[in-house]
Write a structure and sequence with these properties.
Blueprint (H helix, E strand, L loop, with lengths): L1 H24 L12 H11 L21 H15 L3 H9 L5 H13 L5 H4 L11 H18 L25 H11 L12 H4 L46 H10 L9 H9 L2 H10 L6 H12 L7 H6 L8 H12 L16 E3 L6 H5 L11 H4 L7 E3 L21 H11 L7 H12 L4 E2 L2 E2 L2
Antiparallel strand pairs: 1-2, 3-4
Helix pairs in contact: 2-4, 2-7, 5-7, 8-13, 10-13, 15-19
Length: 459
C-alpha cells in the first residue's frame, strides 16, 4: 500500500513538472514589444529565457530542486551560474539606460554565438524544455553587442574591419601634463617615500622587468613580504580599478597605498614623506612650480598617477587591429582565434585585454583545493573590500599585455609559466583540458602582446 502511495506521489510530481514545463517552455515574444529600444529587448530576452534563474545572486532554488536526482543538478547549475556571471546588474542597466560593462557584453555575445546556454544538463530537466535562444533572439543579442561596442568601447585607432572585436588596440597616448609626469617619474623612483629610504615604487614595479619584480611576493621594508603577487604597472591606467581586490578606484588612490603599508614601504604618514622630500631644496622648488600648494599626499600621488598614465605599451597585435595585416603571422592569427574559441576573450577584453571586471576563481572546479596550501588572506579577493560572501575568491582580471614578462602568475604567484596558466584557466574556469596544440597556438598569439616602451621592446 505504501509503495502505491509513493508511486502516486512521484507520478503526480512528474505530471506537475511536465505541465509547468509546457507552460514555461512555450516560446514567447515579449521582447518584440520593445522594437524601438534594443537594450530593453536584450533585457527581456535574458529574462524570458530564464537566464536569471541561475545567473543572479537573487536566484532561489525552485520547488523541484528538492526532488532526488534533479535537485543536485539544479543547485549545482545555480551555483556555477552565479559564479560565472550575475546578469541582474546587466538587465537593470539595460532597462534603465545605465552603463554596461565590456565583460558582461562579451559574455552575452559569446553565448549567442556559441549556443552554449543553457548547458546540456540544464536542458535535460523538463521544467527547462523550450528555454533556449531562438535564431531571432540571437540576432537581437549579437546586433546589440555590435552597436553598443562600437558606440562605447571601440578604440579610436582600430581599423573598420576589427571594430567589433572584443579586444581593441591601445590609445596612441593618454593626455598628460608633462611637468607633472617629470615629477611623477622622479617620485616613482624615489626611496624617500619609504620609512627607511630603501624602497621605491620601482623596486616592486621595475620598468625594465615588465612592470613587476618577478617574485611571488614583493619584498618590502625590513625584509617583509606581501601576501599577493604584484600586478604590472604597465597599462594600469586602463584598469577599471586597481589592486587584485579593487580597493583603489584609480591610479592616484593606488599610489597612496604602498607608501603607508607597514609591510611594503612603511612610512608613518604623507606628512613625514613630505618633510623628507622638502629637505631637498632643488626638488622642493621644482615641485612648487607645478603644485603651488607644495608637497602633500594629494599632489605627490597625483604626480605619480600622471606619470603612470604614460606607461602604455603598444604591440604587434595593436598594429594588426589597426589594419596592418602583415603585423602577425598566420599562426599568431590562428592563436587569436583559438583564444576566442576558448572564451578567454569574455574576461580578457578591451584595450587592456583584461582589468575590466572581478571574476570568481574556480568556476568549474576548486582551484584552492588543487593548490593544496590552505587559504590565505590574499585568497579572499574582492571580499576583503566589500565583506560580501559572494565576493570571496573574486579577483580583478589581470591584463594580458606583456604577460610573457610578468611571471609568476595568478594572484598567489604560484604559477611559473604561461603554458601552465593557460591549462589551469582552461580546467578551473572553462571546465576543459585545452589540447597542447591549442595551448601552443595561444602562446604564439600571447607573445604578440609584448609591447614597446619609449620605442624599445620590453624584455
Amino acid at each position: 500500500m505504501r509503495k502505491k502511495n509513493w508511486l502516486t506521489i512521484i507520478l503526480g510530481l512528474v505530471f506537475v513538472v511536465l505541465i509547468v514545463s509546457f507552460i514555461m517552455g512555450w516560446p514567447t515574444s515579449e521582447y518584440k514589444k520593445y522594437a524601438d529600444n534594443e537594450a530593453k529587448q536584450v533585457a527581456s530576452i535574458l529574462k524570458e529565457n530564464g537566464c536569471l534563474d541561475c545567473h543572479s545572486e537573487q536566484a532561489s532554488v525552485p520547488f523541484y530542486g528538492k526532488i532526488p536526482v534533479i535537485g543536485p543538478i539544479v543547485k549545482a547549475d545555480i551555483k556555477e551560474g552565479i559564479e560565472y556571471v550575475d546578469l541582474t546588474p546587466l538587465c537593470d542597466a539595460l532597462e534603465n539606460g545605465s552603463p554596461v560593462t565590456e565583460v558582461d557584453m562579451a559574455k552575452v555575445e559569446n553565448t549567442a554565438l556559441s549556443g552554449s546556454m543553457p548547458p546540456k544538463q540544464y536542458s535535460y530537466i523538463p521544467i527547462h524544455w523550450g528555454q533556449k535562444l531562438s535564431s531571432d533572439e540571437k540576432t537581437v543579442l549579437i546586433n546589440w553587442v555590435k552597436n553598443f561596442r562600437q558606440e562605447h568601447f571601440t578604440s579610436p585607432t582600430v581599423s573598420e574591419e576589427f571594430a567589433n572585436e572584443p579586444l581593441q588596440p591601445l590609445f596612441e597616448f593618454i593626455p598628460t601634463d608633462s611637468a607633472k609626469v617629470a615629477l611623477g617619474f622622479a617620485l616613482y623612483h624615489d626611496t624617500r617615500l619609504s620609512g627607511d629610504n630603501t624602497i621605491s615604487c620601482a623596486t616592486c614595479h621595475g620598468l625594465n622587468t615588465g612592470g613587476v619584480d618577478r617574485l611571488q611576493f614583493s619584498k618590502g621594508i625590513q625584509g617583509q613580504f606581501g601576501g599577493v603577487n604584484p600586478p604590472t604597472v604597465y597599462n594600469a591606467a586602463l584598469n577599471f580599478a586597481q589592486f587584485w581586490d579593487g580597493r583603489a578606484a584609480n591610479l592616484q588612490e593606488q599610489a597612496a597605498g604602498p607608501p603607508l603599508n607597514p609591510v611594503e614601504m612603511g612610512s608613518a604618514s604623507f606628512d613625514d614623506i613630505s618633510a623628507a622630500l622638502s629637505v631637498d631644496k632643488v626638488f622642493n622648488a621644482e615641485f612648487i612650480k607645478v603644485y603651488p600648494d607644495g608637497l602633500n599626499q594629494a599632489n605627490i600621488t597625483d604626480a605619480i598617477a600622471e606619470f603612470e598614465k604614460t606607461l602604455l605599451t603598444p604591440c604587434r597585435f595593436d598594429e594588426y587591429l589597426r589594419g596592418d595585416k602583415n603585423a602577425l603571422t598566420a599562426e599568431e592569427i590562428e592563436g587569436y582565434q583559438v583564444f576566442k574559441d576558448n572564451k578567454c576573450a569574455t574576461c580578457h577584453v578591451g584595450m587592456n585585454i583584461g582589468g575590466q571586471s572581478y571574476e570568481y576563481f574556480g568556476v568549474k572546479a576548486d582551484y584552492f583545493n588543487f593548490r593544496g596550501t590552505g587559504l590565505t588572506d590574499g585568497d579572499n579577493g574582492r571580499f576583503a573590500v566589500t565583506g560580501k560572501e559572494s565576493d570571496r575568491h573574486k579577483f580583478k582580471t589581470p591584463t594580458l599585455r606583456n604577460v610573457m614578462l610578468t611571471y609568476p602568475y595568478m594572484h598567489d604567484g604560484t604559477v611559473n609559466s604561461v603554458e601552465e596558466a593557460i591549462q589551469i584557466m582552461g580546467e578551473y574556469q572553462g571546465g576543459k583540458a585545452i589540447p597542447q596544440t591549442e595551448v601552443s597556438k595561444m602562446i604564439a598569439f600571447i607573445k604578440t602582446l609584448t609591447g614597446t616602451y619609449k620605442g624599445e621592446l620590453l624584455q
